[in-house]
Specification:
The chain has one helix at 2-19; strands at 55-60, 70-72, 75-80, 84-89, 95-100, 110-112, 115-119, 124-129, 135-140, 150-152, 155-159, 164-169, 175-180, 190-192, 195-199, 204-209, 215-220, 230-232, 235-239, 245-249, 254-259, 273-275, 278-282, 287-292, 298-303, 313-315, 318-322, 327-332, 338-343, 353-355, 358-362, 367-371. It is mainly beta.
Length: 372
């Protein structure tokens, strides 16, 4: 078992090196510091989980949790529709602090350099001291913030419904640059080699250089995209509202393949996970899909009882994902067979966060679950 863990960690280290992301790997206690776990948005955990999960603790946020949790330095950070960013102890669930915000939708916290960053539906972007919960600075946009922040060096990237992607000073909140889009900036940027890649509500996939805000890639897609793209080297994968999943060759600046389910044509809002040549994501067709990254051909699908807007997380050979049918599903990565499910009793659109041997996810009834 120890050998398998070491091999898995070595494989993930290679994957991240290829993607341009090089975390310090600790198999048992790696952090989950942002939406999808890392800047390329791979949705792959470096931590292991027990073979059989049980609920270790729960927390009642008092209102819906659509925000996906972040985990860092033994703390869980999550936002709620009740207008709070909360820090909890990962081991016990005890409240460390609460910070008042506007209503938080899907924007998920990012943790870096002693600060927690998150946006709210009033258009305010918050930087909060990670230890004390005291405000560091705020920045006001003129539209809702549903995008999740990504920290790149001394800058934090955030999109707004005011149609701008912003690069702010992580320390002070000053605007380094902003780029205007032709539609809402809803998705979270994925970052590779100093370029932020983002799928657009204006039917375009773009690459924006983090250093100066210059556009270096523009690929017309012809479809509205609410999901965030996952990166693997020079390839991006994302679902669209035209009922397709696409693979984008960023070097050739073209769509290399398109996947459409032969019978069930529904939009994709879930952001994909990528590992071992597989792209895994949920659809509003109630299904979870696993596709071949080179060809877009289907490996398997798994049917739930309602829309899947949660984004899957891969832990070793297992896939964890929530559904609006109120269940957290555990699937076999290779075959798509169900290994277990947990009935949370309320819709789940947030995505799992995995670190320190724990899995954390919130529900629409305001309950945050920690499994281990």
């Amino acid at each position: 078992m120890r050998l398998l863990i070491r091999l898995a960690v070595a494989f993930l280290s290679v994957q991240y090196a290829v993607s341009g992301f090089s975390p310090t790997v600790h198999a048992q206690d790696a952090a989950w510091p942002q939406f999808r776990g890392n800047p390329p948005l791979t949705g792959v955990a470096l931590s292991t989980l027990p073979a059989s999960l049980k609920v270790l603790w729960t927390f009642d946020a008092g209102d819906a949790i659509e925000s996906s949790a972040a985990i860092a330095d033994g703390a869980v950070y999550v936002g709620s529709a009740g207008g709070e960013l909360v820090a909890l102890d990962l081991q016990t669930g005890a409240v460390r602090w609460r910070y008042k915000t506007g209503e938080i939708g899907e924007s998920s916290p990012a943790v870096a350099n002693g600060a927690v960053y998150i946006g709210d539906l009033t258009g305010t972007f918050h930087a909060v001291d990670a230890k004390s919960g005291k405000p560091l600075w705020t920045f006001k946009t003129t539209g809702e913030i549903r995008s999740s922040p990504v920290v790149v060096g001394d800058r934090v990237l955030i999109g707004s419904y005011d149609r701008f992607l912003y690069a702010l000073s992580a320390a002070k909140g000053a605007v380094a640059w902003k780029v205007e889009f032709r539609g809402y900036v809803h998705a979270t940027p994925s970052v590779l080699d100093g370029v932020a890649y983002i799928a657009g509500c204006d039917e375009t996939f773009r690459g924006i250089r983090v250093a100066d805000g210059r556009e270096v890639l523009n690929v017309p897609i012809g479809a509205y995209m609410g999901a965030s793209a996952v990166l693997d080297g020079r390839t991006a994968y994302v679902g669209t509202f035209e009922n397709e999943v696409i693979g984008i060759d960023m070097a050739a600046r073209t769509v290399m393949w398109t996947y459409r389910h032969p019978e069930r044509l529904f939009p994709y809002y879930s952001s994909a996970a990528f590992i071992q040549g597989r792209v895994v994501l949920g659809g509003r067709d109630k299904m979870i899909h696993a596709l071949d990254a080179k060809t877009g051909k289907e490996y398997w699908t798994f049917m739930t009882n309602a829309r899947v807007e949660s984004s899957p997380v891969v832990v070793g050979s297992r896939v964890f994902v929530g559904s609006t049918d109120g269940r957290l599903y555990e699937l076999d990565l290779a075959k798509g067979t169900k290994l277990s499910d947990f009935d949370a009793g309320a819709a789940i659109t947030a995505s799992p966060a995995v670190a320190g041997g724990r899995l954390v996810i919130g529900t629409h009834d305001g309950r945050l679950y920690c499994f281990g």
